[in-house]
Amino acid sequence: MTTPKVLDHLKKHGQLLDLEIANAIKIPLEEVRAALSELSAQQEISMCSVTSFKNGKPVEAIQCRIFGYFPKPAPGRKPASKPAE
Description:
By secondary structure, the protein is of the alpha+beta class. It contains three helices and three strands; from the N terminus they run αβααββ. Helix content is 39%, strand content 26%. Strands 1-3-2 form a three-stranded antiparallel beta sheet. The longest helix has 13 residues, at 29-41. It is extended.
């Protein structure tokens, strides 16, 4: 039941930390991590461990995103390419 919620949240919001997902969908962190492990095993998402420091203390987290997702290019003008010389 948790897995579809986590996957939908990642599809909607892009790359997130497990802590952010748990806070947003109001599910315990351990359940979110179990769902992420399951989704990773199914090759639905890619994930990696990250360590950040808050007030000098390390905070371990898992950063994840939809597997094979490439964000759309930003709207607006793009720099012109230079012709080959």
